[in-house]
Amino acid sequence: MVRSRKRKTTRGETPPDVMLSAVKEALEGKLSVRAVGHKYDIDHATLLRYCNKYKSARLQSTSSDEADVPQNFVVGYSKLMKVFTEEEEKLLEDYLKKAAAL
Question: Which fold has domain 14-62?
Answer without folding.
Answer: Arc Repressor Mutant, subunit A (1.10.10)
